[in-house]
Design a protein that fits this description.
The complex is a heterodimer of chains A (about 500) and B (about 300).
Chain A (H helix, E strand, L loop, with lengths): L1 H22 L6 E9 L6 H19 L1 E9 L3 H10 L6 E5 L2 H6 L10 H4 L1 H14 L1 E2 L2 E2 L2 E2 L7 E7 H7 L9 H14 L4 E3 L16 E2 L12 E2 L12 H15 L14 H6 L3 E8 L3 H9 L7 E5 L4 E2 L1 H5 L1 E5 L6 H13 L1 H9 L7 E2 L5 E2 L34 H13 L1 E2 L13 H19 L5 H15 L1 H18 L2
Parallel strand pairs in A: 1-2, 8-11, 13-17
Antiparallel strand pairs in A: 3-14, 4-5, 6-14, 7-11, 7-12, 9-10, 15-16
Chain B lengths: L2 H33 L10 E2 L5 H4 L1 E2 L6 H4 L3 H33 L4 H15 L2 H12 L5 H10 L13 H26 L3 H9 L4 H26 L6 H5 L9 H4 L2 H12 L2 H29 L7
Antiparallel strand pairs in B: 1-2
Chain lengths: ~500, ~300
């Protein structure tokens, strides 16, 4: 019998211990769970608590809130948040990764219109009404976009040593088609090299160079119904001449061996391919000036000297702004406190730098010129805490300490780009796809079947585009386009 | 009820109690892991809203199922799933028994252990790794087949990841390579448990090795084969996601021969992360799987009552 009692008391003790863990209420302060995606290592519990303590020292006083951090690896972030919210876990603040419209249509994101003036006035000021409109739906605000260099400019990133050796002149290259001549020269001088590398599987960067295209809430890689050239009519992107030109150019490169043959299915990214030394260039969009882009990529791309040349123009549409949006969850019990903390990530220099770089001295050191770097002998992989690679996804980028080696003048260029980049005529419009969900899934499948081969040149556009268009029609693309047009018209009427 | 019957019943409970206790942890696990989540089946018929939760969300009838049947892919993926699985069940069983017999016939020599271990090894590799091994063979620019084999034979290199004809064979081959070793274990055990005297008697009667295999080994394995096949039939509507997604490198040109229900659902819902639609797809697979198991079992019962599962 005594054995049994001992067992029962053991179970009771365990239950007690567990309940103590889950019900520990911060004394008098609201606890806000802040979940964010990190590209860096997930910190250990002790380290995480040390950052929380440093943050809480500020937040207790400023807004009467204690914060619990929930860093999640970028690759599983969306599903982790979705599972957490379904399972009833406390997640008060989360970010969307390109799926803001889904977060709104499935009621994940709380309507913050009535709270923003009282709980986040500084942020409202910093972000500005225009950008907040991009995170609105039917006139209500559902999130706050990350404040950062947003305008993405298409560039070709190339091996400077090879270009100098052959004497290539990039100054007249302004479109992807202008590149062809230079690529031929590279192939001639270095037959062992493949001139163009893929950015990632199924993408050699060309479709992003199509100018003035608003993808209307779809991501860049799978547009379904777009508006082009400021006309408020929704069209099928794949039926346009611009798309056909992209495929034809890709096809001609493919046939001349100017682009990698396995681009449609490769498992490697551009930086990895460049690091092998077998590739000359790739095309992708960046939000930094040419020199900065080249310099920052060089280290990941095998250390070869790189150059970059802009071959398109930056374009701002709603998705560019709301791709990375911070939301308060509908299941949160402390919505106001959550928004107050979110406000600090945009307006408080100490908070955002704690989140990005961790503790000064342990995780990073500050240099005299105001830039920061990892402590002597440490790097991003070995310091206890860093979320440096998330710098473009969190709070206010312009409040973060610059990393050593970056050019302070670049920040001005970036702010300038944000302001001067061409803006879509449908800026602020967010598409609600909830009525055409099954068409969306079916169309997504058709796109993943045809698009990679077409934009990478491995299939003949003359034969495949008509087949692709027909498959899209069968899968319900016309329904999506009609739904988009209907909502766009309503939006345009309301925003006149 | 007579006193005797009551006594008998009592004693049978007393006898089975320890066995029940042994089974209890497994049953509890089954309940928690397989039965409790079944409440989630509601999701298949709901327009899920995070704010309202599972029970508060609105019903939306069969809308969540629509995407499965929207395109002509519906037919292709169903056909692929069933045909591949049927091929895997038949070939998998044939090869597994073949390998099991070979291993058994080699006796208890040390090198047999080595063969068996090497046959098992592929099963320990993840599909991602297998995908890369296949890629090393079939890669268009510098794969082994194109650069070495085809070159030596003087044949034109083939762009494997955009040519769909060979893929049913490649996928079946990869499947057999990965699973034959593991699948054979249960048959090796079955053969090892057979009474040697039957074989000796047959030998005395002048039966050759092949005759012994055909008339003794295989018939005695029949119950095992039927049980394993019935279990496999229950999963005929599920495909091995890694095999159909990783090995063909997600190549769009190959969808006609590589698209299965699981890859379709994955590709379609990657973007939207829609809870209701994934629940609908899973429910559809389970219901069809359930019907097939019942059907297959009924068939077995009709032909050979003793060997039916239930």
């Amino acid at each position: 019998m005594s054995k049994r009692i001992r067992f029962v008391s053991l179970v009771l003790a365990l239950v007690l211990a567990l309940s103590v863990c889950s019900f520990s209420v911060a004394d008098g302060y609201d606890k806000v769970v802040f979940s964010y995606a990190t590209f860096n290592n997930i910190p250990t519990n002790d380290v995480r608590v040390s950052i929380e303590e440093a943050i809480n020292a500020i937040t207790r006083e400023k807004i009467g809130v204690e914060v619990e951090l929930m860093p999640v690896s970028i690759w599983e972030y969306s599903s982790a948040v979705s599972r957490g919210l379904q399972g009833g876990d406390q997640i008060d603040v989360f970010q969307t990764l390109g799926d803001f419209n889904v977060a709104v249509s499935t009621d994940m994101a709380e309507d913050i219109t009535d709270m923003i003036d009282t709980c986040a006035p500084e942020t409202k000021e910093i972000i500005g009404q225009d950008w907040l409109n991009a995170c609105s739906f039917k006139g209500r605000i559902f999130g706050i976009p990350t404040m950062k260099p947003i305008a993405l400019t298409p560039m070709v990133v190339y091996r400077k040593d090879i270009a100098d050796e052959i004497g290539l002149d990039f100054s007249n290259v302004n479109t992807p088609a202008d590149l062809t001549e230079l690529l031929r020269k590279v192939k001639e001088a270095h037959p062992e090299m493949t001139p163009v590398a893929a950015v990632n599987a199924g993408n050699i960067g060309l479709q992003l160079t199509v100018p003035n295209t608003d993808y209307l809430s779809d991501d860049y890689y799978t547009p379904k119904g777009v508006i082009m050239n400021d006309e408020l009519t929704v069209i099928d992107f794949y039926a346009t001449d611009a798309f056909k030109d992209v495929c034809s150019l890709a096809r001609s490169w493919y046939l001349e061996d100017l682009v990698m043959k396995d681009a449609a299915t490769t498992a490697s990214t551009a930086a990895e391919l460049m690091a092998t030394g077998n590739y000359f260039c790739y095309i992708a969009s960046y939000s930094y000036p040419e020199e900065d882009t080249a310099a920052s990529i060089s280290a990941q791309a095998g250390g070869y000297p790189l150059g970059a040349k802009i071959i398109g123009s930056a374009f701002l549409d709603t998705t560019a702004i709301n791709a990375l949006t911070w939301c308060v969850s509908t299941t949160s019990k402390v919505k106001e406190s959550a928004l107050k903390f979110l406000n600090l990530t945009f307006s408080d220099k100490e908070i955002i730098n704690l989140l990005i770089y961790g503790l000064e001295g342990r995780d990073y050191v500050k240099k005299e010129d105001g830039t920061v770097n990892y402590p002597e002998g440490q790097d991003a992989a070995t310091v206890p805490y860093t979320a440096q690679l998330s710098c473009g996804t969190m709070g206010n980028f312009f409040l973060m300490y610059p990393m050593e080696g970056t050019n302070p003048a670049s920040l001005d260029w970036e702010l300038e780009q944000n302001k001067t980049a061409k803006t879509s005529a449908a800026m602020g419009f967010t598409f609600d796809n909830s009525r055409v969900k099954s068409q969306y899934t079916a169309v997504a499948n058709v796109i993943s079947q045809y698009l990679p081969g077409l934009v990478c040149g491995s299939v003949d556009p003359e034969a495949d585009i008509p087949e692709f268009l027909e498959a899209l029609n069968d899968a319900g693309l016309p329904d999506i386009i009609a739904a988009k047009l209907e909502q766009l018209d309503a939006w345009a009427a309301a925003n006149k | 009820m007579t006193a005797r019957a009551v006594k008998k019943k009592k004693s049978s409970t007393a006898q089975t109690l320890p066995l029940m206790l042994i089974a209890l942890p497994g049953l509890i696990y089954l309940l928690i892991n397989n039965y409790l989540p079944m409440f989630g089946v509601f999701l298949a018929f709901k327009d899920y809203s995070y704010a309202r939760g599972i029970f508060g969300s609105k019903w939306n009838g069969l809308d969540n199922f629509e995407f499965l049947f929207r395109t002509k892919d519906a037919w292709i993926m169903t056909r692929n799933t069933i045909l591949y699985n049927a091929a895997f069940i038949i070939l998998g069983t044939v090869f597994a028994i073949f390998v099991a017999i070979l291993i058994h016939e080699m006796g208890k020599k040390r090198r047999v252990k080595f063969y068996q271990a090497s046959l098992m090894l592929p099963n320990l590799l993840s599909w991602v790794v297998v995908g890369f091994i296949v890629y090393a063979f079939l890669n268009a620019d510098n794969g082994f087949i194109n650069k070495t084999v085809y070159k030596a034979l003087g044949w034109e290199p083939v762009s494997w990841y955009s040519k769909k004809e060979p893929w049913p064979f490649i996928l079946t081959f990869v499947y057999l390579w990965k699973f034959v070793g593991t699948n054979s274990i249960i048959y090796v055990a079955g053969i090892a448990g057979m009474d040697r005297e039957i074989f000796e008697a047959a030998q005395l009667d002048g039966a050759s090795k092949v005759k012994q295999i055909l008339h003794i080994t295989v018939p005695m394995l029949k119950p095992t084969i039927i049980t394993l096949t019935l279990m496999a039939v229950g999963r005929i509507f599920y495909s091995d996601f890694g095999l159909f997604y990783q090995v063909p490198a997600n190549s769009g040109r190959l969808f006609a021969v590589t698209q299965t229900i699981d890859t379709y659902v994955y590709r379609g819902l990657m973007e939207s992360n829609d809870v209701g639609m994934s629940a609908a797809a899973a429910l559809y697979q389970s219901v069809v799987g359930f019907i097939l198991v019942i059907g297959a079992n009924a068939l077995v019962r009709k032909i050979d009552k003793e060997n039916a599962l239930f």
